[in-house]
Design a protein that fits this description.
Layout (H helix, E strand, L loop, with lengths): L1 H14 L3 E3 L1 H9 L5 E4 L5 H13 L3 E4 L3 H7 L7 E4 L2 H14 L5
Parallel strand pairs: 2-3
Antiparallel strand pairs: 1-4, 2-4
Helix pairs in contact: 1-5
């Protein structure tokens, strides 16, 4: 149930225009200090995980691993996504809280 709630919150963030979807857009959001939360898919490659966790750590951006690529993409109404950045602090907190309740997904 909470997993579904977190996925719905990601969809709400997209509808509000507070998601930078895909690796290029997420990287840009992190580098421009607009990202409040970085969401990496559960099945993202090791290279993608390392690249984004290192980048986020250097800029003190929270990171979670949540949902497979297909489900993460479906949550934002697109194809597969291995990486998303949430650019609103309130929505990031709500997503983080819901995702953390489902499993130990917080890095």
């Amino acid at each position: 149930m909470d997993r579904h709630k977190a996925a719905m919150m990601i969809g709400i963030a997209r509808k509000a225009g507070k998601i930078a979807g895909g690796e290029f857009a997420a990287e840009k959001a992190v580098k421009e200090n607009r990202a409040c939360l970085l969401i990496l898919s559960e099945d993202a490659s090791d290279n993608t995980v390392k690249k984004f966790t290192d980048m986020a750590s250097a800029r003190q951006v929270r990171v979670i691993r949540f949902l497979p690529k297909a489900e993460l993409g479906r949550a934002v109404g697109t194809g597969e996504r291995s990486c998303l950045a949430v650019t609103d602090e309130g929505l990031a907190g709500a997503i983080l809280k819901a995702a953390a309740m489902t499993e130990r997904s917080v890095l």
